[in-house]
Structures are given as C-alpha cells and as structure tokens.
Design goal:
The chain is built from 9 helices and no strands. It has one domain (about 1-195). With about 200 residues, the protein is mostly helical.
Amino acid sequence: MEAALLNVLIFWMLTTPHEFAHAWVAMKLGDDTPVLEGRVTLNPLAHVDWIGTVILPLLMSLTGAGLIGWGKPVNTNPYKLRGGMKGMALVAMAGPASNVVFAILLLAIAAHVPSLSGLCGGAARLSLFLAIFNMIPVPPLDGSKLLLAARVPIFIYNELARFGFILILIAMSATSLGPWMSNWSWATTRAIYGWFG
C-alpha cells in the first residue's frame, strides 16, 4: 500500500508542472482562460483530477497493472491565443517540455543527494516516459494538437478523438511502441544522470 501511495504522489508531482506549463504558455500567448480558472499556479490541488490523478493510478499500482492517469486538463481558447492553432500547438508542447526539464532537475538532485537517488531517478524516468507518451499524435494527448496546427481536416481529428483511448491502448499493448518508449526513458535517464556524474 505504501508503494502504491508513493507512486500516486510521484505521478501527482509530475502532472502539476505539466499542467502549469500549459497554463503559463497560454497566458503568455494572450489567453486569459487559465488565469480566470486559477490554473497558472504550482499548487497541486489546482491541477488534480481525482479519478485520473489519484484513484485510477492507485488502483493500478495496487494491482500491479502499471500506471495510467492524467491531470486536470487546462482549458484554452484558440481564438484568444496569438498564432491560433500554432499557438495551441505551443501550449500543448509546453507540457512534455516541462516533463523533460523536471526530469533534469530531479536527476541533478539524484546525483548530488545520494539518499534520494533512487526516488528521484525513478521519478525522472517516469517524467521522461510521460513526455514521450504525451507526444503521441492521438487525442486527447498533447501531440494531437500538432495535427491541428498542421491543418489536418477537423473531421479526421474528430474521428481520431472518438477512438483515441482505444487507439492508444492498442498502440501501447499490441505494438513495440510501449517497450520502445520505456527503453528510451531508461536510456535518456542514464544519459542525463551522466551529465552530473
């Protein structure tokens, strides 16, 4: 139970800067929606989706079924964003970018505080996995916004969105994508850790 709770806390810790990054970039591009909804903050309570951030990850950790979850989505208005759909793509990419930056910070701590190396190293690996996972160009993941920026017809995007979760599950379970992303996160974690060692 303690290990499962720790997994949930780590996941929650990683979703907070991810969602904050979305909100901050949207604000900088002229959309006040995240500001009005109180999302331009690093307060974890502002970004929690109790089912996706806590309950589902906890149940999956307790059953040993891996870890799937999500934070509370940040609402944006493309009509307020400078650059329109391109601005929305920048907002979307801010989330995965924040995961990479946070992983680097965690690995810097791991390299200089040996007592935290295991905890920070594992959190960094998960953060990098979330970064690459969110780049999959299937709704509702962040990478799907690149399709809109590339002017993919909206009906195609909507059809992808209808079956998004199913497509993601198939891609992760029935192809080599999941193992590849896991191996990439391991290798990248070791490489970044080497910068500080």
